[in-house]
Amino acid sequence: MNNFTYYAPTKVIFGRDAELEVGKEIASRGAHKVLVHYGDTFLQENGILDKVHKSLTDAGLEYIDLDGVVPNPRLSLVRKGIELCKKEGVDFILPIGGGSAVDSAKAIAYGIANDDFDILDLVLDLSLHKIPKEKVKIAPLGCIITIAATGSEMSNAMVITIDEDHVKRTYLNDIGRPLFAILDPVITFTLPKYQIACGAADIMMHTMERYFHNVEGTDLVDHIAEGLMISVKEAAIVAMKEPTNYDARATLMWAGSLSHNGLTGCGRMADWGPHKLQAEMEGMFDMTHGAGLCAVWGSWARYCMSTNPARFAKFAVRVMGVSEDFSDINGTAMKGIEAFEEWCHKIGMPTSMSEMNIHPTPEQIDEMAQKCADSNGVGYVAFFKHLYKDDIKKIYEMAL
């Protein structure tokens, strides 16, 4: 097991009607004016926005709304939010939604707290760290989550799409973890089944990115990750059949937070290869994140399996329920990959780009591969197996 630092400061307020506490929670932190940041009309239709507005007003807080968040949140909206917050004297940021709303809000919070650099400089900082993390500040931020998916509510990550370049970039800093996260599983009851499935897939992938590694002595964390993945795998099937099953939705919602708050990555190096591959697909074709991950994961797994077939075999047996064949570890590993793809299909997720009606040209594959290889500033991505441009091209071609 590697040395590690585990830091998860976010206060979690979980359960039915938890969103009604948001006003008191923000007021207790000394704030006066709140930016409420969200996406489309979902919050108005289900009454959540009215409840939040009332909770803020009852707590003596002023607020201003900024809607318009879309999947793969845009830097252009972030800039609009920064300008609005500075003009209105906002001192607390409250996103309502999923990872896109939270990430957009994080970027706004960074933008209004730092005058020495532009938000684009932070987004493009990559692994070069031209801007020392200790010099970066962020405005106070809490969130209300409406979908079990990205885990951004407890994560140190911020992912933003740069409109003009059609690329997604990630910034990591522990100060980006929200002060609190409000999670009410009931809010998720009316989500379309496609979004339930995409969210469940994203939770699985966040855990799998940390599970596939080459570090010895991680059995404790392995078992934590395996239990989480088994729970998500089972709860997703139930939620697809019974959208108002509270226990299934609660399992998915809490698993989303635990999958991305660092717990399942303690003591080992997370890979993030599939995420990097999918990010360039998403930047070019604007697909839903969880679905895109499923579309590329099987190809990544087959390409990288020989690096550590025992790890894939462990995943197959412990998570996917495959019978272990001690005389054929590669066969066991491959059955695990196939079993995961079968689960994807059971919940309506794709396992190739063609299943998403996406058919990139050779030139587009080359462009995605180049951008992916360059995205970390070192010419390759991933840690389970370093992936250079030629490797990335082959995986994309396998995923067609």
Topology diagram in text:
Blueprint: E1 11-14, H1 22-27, E2 33-37, H2 42-45, H3 48-58, E3 62-66, H4 75-88, E4 92-97, H5 99-113, H6 119-123, E5 142-145, E6 157-162, E7 167-172, E8 180-183, H7 193-211, H8 219-241, H9 246-259, H10 273-285, H11 289-304, H12 309-318, H13 329-346, H14 362-374, H15 389-398
Parallel strand pairs: 1-8, 2-3, 2-4, 4-5, 5-8
Antiparallel strand pairs: 6-7
Helix pairs in contact: 4-5, 7-8, 7-9, 7-11, 8-9, 10-11, 10-14, 11-13, 11-15, 12-13, 14-15
Total beta strand runs:
8
N to C succession of SSEs: EHEHHEHEHHEEEEHHHHHHHHH
How large is the share of residues in beta strands?
5-15%
What class do helices, strands and sheet pairing give?
alpha/beta
Strand order of the largest sheet: 1-8-5-4-2-3
* Helix coverage percent: 40-55%
The termini sit apart by: 37 Å
By oligomeric state, this entry counts as: single chain
Description:
48% of the residues lie in helices and 10% in strands. With 400 residues, it is of the alpha/beta class. It has a 6-stranded parallel sheet with strand order 1-8-5-4-2-3, with helices on both faces. The chain has a two-stranded antiparallel ribbon with strand order 6-7. The protein is globular. The chain starts with 10 loop residues before the first strand and ends with a helix.
Quick gist of this model?
The protein is of the alpha/beta class. Helices cover 48% and strands 10% of the residues.
Quickly list its features:
15 helices; 400 residues; six-stranded parallel β-sheet; alpha/beta; globular
